[in-house]
User: Fold this.
Amino acid sequence: MEIIDRFLQPPKTSLFLFGPRGTGKTTFIQRRFQNAIIIDLLDPERVRFFSAMPERLREMVAAQPESGCLVIDEIQRVPDLLAVVHKLIEAKKGWKFVLTGSSARKLKRTGVDLLAGRALLHTLHPFMAAELKERFELEGALHYGILPGVIDSESPAEVLRSYAALYLREEVQMEGLVRNIGNFSRFLEAISFSHASVLNISNVARECEVERKVVEGYVGILEDILLAWHLPVFTKRAKRKLGAHPKFYLFDTGVFRSLRPKGPLDRPEEIEGQALEGLVAQHLRAWIAYSDIERELFYWRTRSGVEVDFVIYGPDGLWALEVKNSQKIHPADLRGLKSFKEEYPESRTFLLYRGKDRLMNGGILCLPCADFLLALRPDRSLDKAFR
Assistant:
C-alpha cells in the first residue's frame, strides 16, 4: 500500500490529535513518531490495565532509560489518563505526549481542558485532493469519499457500508451513548437528507418518530464522535436580515452517500449536488485546519433566501464561494455571489462548477471544481492559488 504524505504538521510540543475513525491517525503517528512508545487503547486488555490503575502510566514512564515521545491512541477510552499526563507534563522531564482520539464526548465530561493548553489541539481529516495528487478523481470522490481505508480498498462500497455499522457498535452502542440503537439507526438515515442543508430538528424528529430533544441529543453525539459538524451564518457587519440557523454536514462525502437512502422518488441530481457541496466543504475545513493562518468558515443566507455556500474570513482576506453541480454557468447561479459582493465590496468571489473551462463572469472567477480542489493547499491562500 502506497503511503501518502499528509499536510498536517504536528508541533514539537505535546498535542491532541483528533479525527474520525478511518482518517489515518494511527498510520500518521507511526510515520511521524517512529521511536515513540505507543499505547493502543483499542486493545481491550490495555483498556482494563490502565482503567484499573491510571497511575501505571507514570510507572511506565519512570522505567524508561531516557525521555522521549509517548503516544496514547484513542485516549477517550480511558479519560482518567489525562490527569496522569497532566502531572507528567508539569514535571518537565522532557517527555512529549501525543494523545489521539475519535470521540470528544468522554473527554468533554472529564474536561479536555485539564491540560490547560499544555497540549495543542489538531485534527486529521479525510484526504485532500492535493495530498492524493494524480490519484484524485472527482467522480470517485463524489461516490465513495476520500477516507484512506476507502481509497486503498478494492471494494470501497463495501467498506463504506460497514463504516456506519462499526461506529454504531464501537462508538455508540459499546460506549452506551444511546438507549435505543434502533431509534439512532433511523436517525442516521433521516439526518443524511440534511447534509449540506439548513438543519431542521423538528422535521428530522418527525421522520424518526422520536421527540425533538432526543434528536438534539443525537445530533450532539454525531458532533462529539466527529461524524458531523455545523456551519454557522456569516454575520459580520451585516446590513440585511440574515438567516439564523446553521447548515449541517457529515464529515465525508462517501459516508453521506452510504447513509443516504435511495429510491424511485429521489432525484439523482439532488444527491449529486449535496455530495459536491459536501466534498468542497470538507476540503475547506481541512485546508483551514492545516493552515498556519487562523481563518473561519461560514455560509451566508438572507431572510429572502439569497445564499452563498461558503464564506472564508481571516486576516488575509474575505472570500465567497458558490458550488454548482452543472456543466454550464447560468445567470441565476451568480445571483448570490453578486449580492454578497454588493454587501462586502472587499470580498473575492468564486463559482465552482462541473465544466472544464476557467472563466471570468461579471468579476466572478468561475473554476472547474476538480481544478479548485487540486490547487487547494494549506501553504497557499485562495488568491495565490488562483491569481
Q: What stands out?
A: Residues 129-270 form one domain.
